[in-house]
Each structure stands twice: as C-alpha cells, then as structure tokens.
UniProtKB/TrEMBL annotation:
Species the sequence originates in: Pseudosulfitobacter pseudonitzschiae
Gene of this entry: araE
Higher taxonomy: Bacteria, Pseudomonadati, Pseudomonadota, Alphaproteobacteria, Rhodobacterales
Family designation: Belongs to the aldehyde dehydrogenase family.
Signal sequence residues: none
Coiled-coil ranges from the UniProt annotation: none
Ranges of residues in domain Aldehyde dehydrogenase: 19-476
Key words of the record: Oxidoreductase, Plasmid
GO-annotated biological processes: gamma-aminobutyric acid catabolic process
Annotated transmembrane regions: none
Main enzyme class: oxidoreductase
E.C. designation(s): 1.2.1.26
Single GO MF descriptor: 2,5-dioxovalerate dehydrogenase (NADP+) activity
Official protein name in the record: Alpha-ketoglutaric semialdehyde dehydrogenase
InterPro entries assigned: Ald_DH/histidinol_DH, Ald_DH_C, Ald_DH_CS_CYS, Ald_DH_N, Aldehyde_DH_dom, Aldehyde_DH_Superfamily
Length: 482
C-alpha cells in the first residue's frame, strides 16, 4: 500500500451505501505540481460493479417514488455539507490537479450551487396538457425519470463535471453510478460524502474508481443502465456512444473543443487581452471550451498579438497551493509531451513563437504559457485540441474570412468574439457554428444554461432545464370519456 499524504485523505469506492478503501488491485494518485505520490486508490473489481448495478436499481425504486420536495431537501442539505468542508475539499482538488486554490474553491462552491439549482428547478416540472378534444377526459404529456444512469467524468474539473451530471439526474428522480477520473478521485468523493451525510438513501448514488474500459463496458452492457453521460475526449466518446447505441440506450456526449476567438478591429483590445489571458490560463488550458485559435483583424493584429504574448508569458507558474501562483501544471508527463509536440510541429511548419514553447526545468509538469503567431493551416495545432497552455494568433481581413476559418475544424463546442458593434455581434453570433458562443467575454457556462456541442464536440446538453430533460423520458397519456 502506498504511503498516504495525510493532508490528502484516502480514496474509496462507494458501493451500496458503503465506503470501500481496499480491493485486490490499486493505483496511485500523483500530484502534478511536484510528482509526489499522494495516495493509492482502490480499483473496482467486476463484483463491485455488479453490486453497484443492483444497488442502483433498488435505489432508483426508492428515489423515483420520493416526492420532489423530499429529494430537494436532501440535495439542499448536501449542498450545506459541501460548504462546511469546502476548504478541505479545495485543498484536495489542488493537490491532485495542481490548479490555484482559488479556482478549486470556486469549483467546490459550484458543486453546492448545482445541487441547489437542480433540486429547485426539478420541482417546477408539471404535466403539459394538450388542448381539449371531444370525447377525451384528458390529454397530457408527462416527463418521468429515465432510470439508473452511468456517468463518466474527466479529471480537468474533477468535481463539478461529475456533479453536473449527477445533480441533474438526482433532481428528476434517477439513481446514478458515477465513475470520476482515477487521476483525481478525492474531489468528487467529497461531494458523495456530503450526500451520504445528508441522508441520501442507499443505492441512489454509487461511485466506482478503476479501469475505465472495464467499468464502462460492464455498466453500459447492463440492462440496469438506461442512460449514459460522458465528458471527455472525442475518441473515447465515440466508443462509448457506439456501445450505448448497440444497446439502444440514449446518451449525452460532451466531447472535445477547439474554440476560435474572433477579434474585430472595433473591439476594446486591452479588455480582450486581459480576459483572454485569464481564460487561457485557466486550468493551464486544460478546458474543453478554452480559447485556442485567435483570429484578429488586420488593423489590430500587431497590438493584440504583442500585448497578449507579453501578458500571457508573464504569468507566475507554480503549485496551486502557493498564494502567488497564477497558473498550475498540466496533468501528466504525457500531457507535457503532447503539448510540446504541437508547438514544435507548428514552429517547424513556419509559425512564429512569440513566447513560451518549452517545458520548465523544475519538478512537476509545467509548460510555459505559449503564443504562436502566423500559424499555417497545415500545422497540427490548427485541427487538434491542444488541451494545454497554447494559443494561436492569426490575422484576418474580412468578416467572411474570419467565419470560414473559425468554423473550419471538426469541433463545435465553444466560440467567442470581441467587437464594439451590436450589428457585428449579432452577425457573428449567428455565423459561428458552436454549441456555446460568448461575445465580449468567455462566460458561457452557468447553472441554468445548457452545456453541449455539435459534430465532433458531441450531442445533447448538460446543465439548465435542458440538462434536467436529458434524464427524463416522455410519456403521453390519453384518457377517453368512459
């Protein structure tokens, strides 16, 4: 057994209402800022997965038959419990992911707010009556919980992305089996502990850590699971969606992104630079809606490129527990290699390196904030999601040129634009092919807004009322006059 970091805690499975810390196999959680082994985590065996499935089935029978107000009370009590332990949870998150502690605190708070919002919004659901017709007593459309859900979440927002799925499903009456990322298990364990403390009935939530392929295959193939939800890479999402489709099970897929940012010559350039630095530095660029391809109009290109490179390159990198750290590490050595390969490929094909472009010679997985200019279309970074601290800055002349390049990838998750003209804002909002569009800012995810993409960025929505409906199934009831 790996020596546990006493500050980090001990990862565990949560199966049929019990916490399980020891299994025949285990893995290690690594601090990406230091390379330190934080803890070992138990790997779920097939029998744990089977028990979670049977538990989820019985949990669904109990939970779906509870009144929405009763479910809401438990979820609200869990939100309060999350806040009571928020500092501890935030430190766990920063230890396992490396991002600044302030960002971890915000993510923990978001989990509490998600439980509260979803609980309240779900109580507003009512049957939809159809217009009266002769010979019928009533005609109505009802939305019911679809059943037990298998939810798979990534490591980059280790608590909130899992919580977004779980909160929506719980609020409408579904049970959930969640597989958080094995790289960052404690962040979501804290959320499940809060639900357990709040009195969530046994089986309503089960948590599995371990071999992603084994867990996903066994869960999706089971007749117990009625819905699949996944956030992660397009490659893995395609496989899971195909597995779900083979069983005629609906799924929600929130996959990769490659967000363009169109900066028009009438934009407030200083504001655009300031917001862009913060957005690009978030999670060291490991965000599905992170801005990546900056398309800047000719007259302001030099001012934006120079100003952005200077400000982004000046960020203070460090362990997220250090109060002066502005950007943390990438997750792993493999991420470092992938990011660096994209940079070297772009430079080899003619891109100008304005800042960064190197690993830092220090412990941990740190890569310098990097800005590439005049990047040719054949460079890999123009089509492959970098998922790291890389920004591309290219120029454009006309509105049509910008739209053509902005929409010229297989991804369509997030897209952004900066302009001082409402007419241009309206035109570019319509023209950008993306599931979420931000104008003069990067805020595109709220408690009550849908999160989802198009094409290779996935399908379906998470969050908002649309996210609640993702875990409901429709029933039409026609009652004729007796």
């Amino acid at each position: 057994m790996t020596t546990q970091n006493p500050e980090y805690g001990r990862p565990a499975l949560f199966v049929d209402g019990k916490w399980i810390t020891d299994t025949p196999r285990s893995g290690e959680v690594i601090n990406p800022a230091t390379g330190e082994v934080l803890a070992s985590f138990p790997i779920a065996e097939p029998e744990h997965i089977e028990l979670a499935l049977s538990s989820a089935l019985s949990g669904f029978e109990v939970w779906s038959n509870m009144a929405p107000d009763a479910r809401a009370r438990i979820m609200n009590n869990a939100a309060a419990a999350i806040r009571e332990k928020s500092e501890e949870s935030a430190r766990h998150m920063t230890l396992e992911l490396g991002k600044p502690l302030a960002d971890s605190r915000a993510e923990v708070e978001n989990c509490a707010a998600l439980l509260e919002w979803c609980a309240k919004a779900a109580t507003e659901q009512q049957d939809r009556p159809l217009d009266a017709r002769p010979g019928f007593e009533s005609l109505k459309v009802r939305k019911e919980p679809i059943g037990p859900v298998a939810a798979f979440a990534p490591w980059n927002f280790p608590a909130s992305l899992a919580a977004r799925k779980m909160a929506s499903a719980l609020a409408v009456g579904c049970s959930v089996i969640v597989k958080p990322a094995e790289e960052t298990p404690m962040s979501f364990i804290a959320i499940v502990k809060a639900l357990d403390f709040a009195g969530l009935p046994r089986g309503v939530v089960n948590l599995l850590i371990g071999d992603p392929a084994q867990i996903s295959t066994q869960l999706i193939a089971s007749p117990v699971i009625r819905k699949v939800a996944f956030t992660g890479s397009t490659t893995v999402g395609q496989k899971l969606a195909a597995m779900a489709g083979a069983e005629a099970k609906p799924s929600v897929m929130e996959l990769g992104g490659h967000a363009p940012v169109v900066v028009f010559d009438d934009a407030d350039i200083d504001r655009a630079i300031g917001l862009s630095v913060v957005a690009k530095a978030r999670n060291a660029g490991q965000v599905c809606v992170a801005p990546t391809r900056y398309l800047v109009q000719d007259d302001v290109y030099d001012a934006f490129a120079d100003g952005f490179a200077k400000a982004f390159g000046a960020l203070k990198l460090g362990d997220g527990l250090q109060p002066d750290s502005q950007m943390g590490p990438v997750l792993s050595p493999a991420r470092l290699e992938a990011v660096d390969a994209l940079v070297q490929d772009a430079v080899a094909k003619g891109a100008r390196l304005l800042t960064g472009g190197r690993r830092l010679n220090r412990p941990g997985n740190f890569y310098a904030p990097t800005v590439l200019a005049d990047v040719p279309p054949e460079a890999r970074v123009m089509q492959e999601e970098p998922f790291g601290p890389i920004a591309v800055v290219n120029r454009f002349s006309t509105f049509e040129d910008a739209v053509s390049v902005a929409n010229n990838t297989d991804f369509a998750l997030g897209a952004y634009a900066f302009t001082g003209s409402q007419e241009t804002a309206d035109r570019i909002s319509d023209a950008l092919d993306a599931g979420m569009v931000g104008i003069n800012g990067y805020s595109v995810v709220f408690l009550d807004s849908p999160l989802g993409g198009r094409r290779y960025s996935g399908f379906g929505s998470e969050g908002g009322y649309e996210g609640l409906d993702a875990y409901r199934i429709t029933k039409f009831i026609s009652q004729a006059v007796a």
